[in-house]
Design goal:
single chain; mainly beta; three-stranded mixed beta sheet; globular; Putative iron binding protein from the HesB_IscA_SufA family
């Protein structure tokens, strides 16, 4: 059995700040082919689907589709604020390398 991804309190707090649950939306984290390293993350507000893994805290939900789940096993989904901007980030123990922008990785 694979370890599900973990979502930090900071990421759930950001979802609450933007009112995702109030809008009936979830944060979808997916892995797609492409990017400069072979795979890339897609992170967006979306509607839930039946085959999603649902991670929930205080009414806010983060979902991962069934195809992306093995790529994100044990990953940590966080929210960071830096001088260059604020964004959701993924620390993925399965990635063997990643690009400088943090949205593309290889396994």
């Amino acid at each position: 059995m694979q370890i599900p991804p973990k979502v930090t309190d900071r990421a759930y707090a950001r979802l609450s700040e933007i009112g995702a649950a109030q809008q009936g939306k979830v944060l979808r984290v997916a892995v797609e082919g492409g990017g400069c390293s072979g795979f890339q993350y897609e992170i967006k507000l979306d509607d839930p689907s039946d085959d999603d893994l649902v991670l929930e805290h205080s009414g806010e939900r983060v979902v991962v589709d069934s195809v992306s789940q093995p790529f994100l096993a044990g990953a940590v989904i966080d929210f960071t604020e830096e001088l260059i901007g604020a964004r959701f980030t993924i620390e993925n123990p399965n990635a063997t390398s990643s690009c400088g922008c943090g949205t593309s990785f290889s396994m």
